[in-house]
Amino acid sequence: MNIKTLILIIINSLIALVIALLSFSSYQQFSNVLNDRILLQLNSIKTLKQNQIEHLLKSEWERFESSELYGQNIDTSVLKLPESIKKSNGIYDFTKYHVAKKTTIGFVSNSKKGTSIKVLDYSKIKQILLERTGMGDSGESYLVGSDFRMRSQSRFYPNKTPYTILVKTKGVINAFKGINGRGVFEDYRGIEVYSVYSPIVVQNLKMVILSEIDVDEVTLPLKELRQRLVGLTLGIFLLAVMLSLFLTRFITNPIKNMQKSLRIMAEGDYNQTNEFIKNSKEIKEMFDALANLKASLQGAVKFSDDIGKMNLHTDFKPKSPNDLLGKSLLAMRDKLIEFRNNDENTRIQSKRMLVNGLEDERRRLSRELHDGVGPYLTSLKYYIENRVKNEQKKAEMKKIVDETISEIRLMSNALMPASIDDFGVGVTLTNFIESLKKSTNVTIEYEDLTQQDNSNITNHQAINLFRITQELINNTLKHADARSIRITLSEFDEFISLFYFDDGIGFDINTVKLGLGIINIKERVEICNGTIVINAAPGNTTFEIELPIEL
């Protein structure tokens, strides 16, 4: 095998291998990212619709209970309810008792004044489910009853009564087991879909909600990408073959000329002086240039080694004004010097911020001790100094001691909750929010979707998630003038998701003051290698935070 053929085989084989690996890697990475994003988007849509439906049902129930009207607000000719339901208070699915099996959700309330029954205007739920923003051409959200029959209109079978459609899919079965999950499986049409599912958490109402989108629609960009990658691979390979042919000719021709000259000299024919001298001169210049290049590279390697050891004051001069490598190394050294100086300044600034933070925390703790515990201890001292014997006074002293202990316990829990190590961040946030509800009029809804057993959330991530949530709630209560807060903490196989919402006045992210803690929140997300998306619109302020699972 001659050198030309060998070079062609090696170059083109390497090019083909690199192109194939890059194409496969790009395709796989794009596919994985697409799957995660689609499921995350569907989960957000499902969570929003679930919250809207649950809120609608609860608010309608409260309005129904507070109403002074009694009686049956139903048509008994089309809705035949058993006595067992009429005697039990709550929100019920009346669909199977409807003569035409029309989706019907109603309220039953029994009191001394009598029994009151009312049917919910289903168009309100239908309006929530038909909102399909962000769900493509094939996406839909729908409800399923405990009998595995649909309770909302299917967009694929608009002329069918929902009750006639059987939906016994993997997602529905899991949701009725109380599982909030996601996956890829066949839907009620037998078509593979991306699906997220959850049970509807409303008294006596046994329904689940699902948000789904066809796999074929989602993977359409993947198919187009695959076709483009195949075409691009073939084009690059053909171009590589043409370039390699030209390159091998360019490389082998001087070698053939040198081989011809050496053969002539070996035969003792020195008459080819002009050709021989010409060829020898070209080869000599080539090796001279190679020697100069070697010396230049040796100097550059030595200088690079010095830079790698951070000996940034080593002398080095480019070989010529055209020595781009030498100039680049000098520029890199100057950048490293600048970076080291900036790093030192950053380190000093970080220490200063740390010290200031510690001092602020001490000042806050001192103020809380002075304002919270101080008055209790002063009162206790007064009682002790006067040697109170009165039993009522003694009871007051005991109450002061109990309140002092409770105050110290609250302060300790705010600094670092003990439950975060024992039960995880999900339970800790639940306890924190429940205690917070007692001191505020703002409605706070919290959904814990973390794994109670075998959770992959590290202690470092748990502390930062707790602090971030503390900071967000504190900002809302102090500055947002909000009426409600919704928080969802979800744990998936590859990431942790914290969704925060309030209906306050919002803020301008570009001009917000550092005192609002936004910088602190971003820094905590950054040190956990996470991402954060902020929407600060009035009435719809959201924070979407994702932290990677650290395995």
Automatic annotation (TrEMBL):
Signal peptide: none
Organism this protein belongs to: Flavobacterium gyeonganense
Primary location: membrane
Reaction it catalyzes: ATP + protein L-histidine = ADP + protein N-phospho-L-histidine
GO molecular function, one term: ATP binding
Superkingdom of this protein's organism: Bacteria
Subcellular location, record wording: Membrane
E.C. code: 2.7.13.3
Protein name: histidine kinase
Aminoacyl-tRNA synthetase recorded as keyword: no
Membrane spanning stretches: 6-27, 229-251
All copies of domain HAMP, residue ranges: 249-302
Keyword tRNA processing carried by entry: no
Domain Histidine kinase per the UniProt entry, residue ranges: 364-551
Enzyme class (EC, first level): transferase
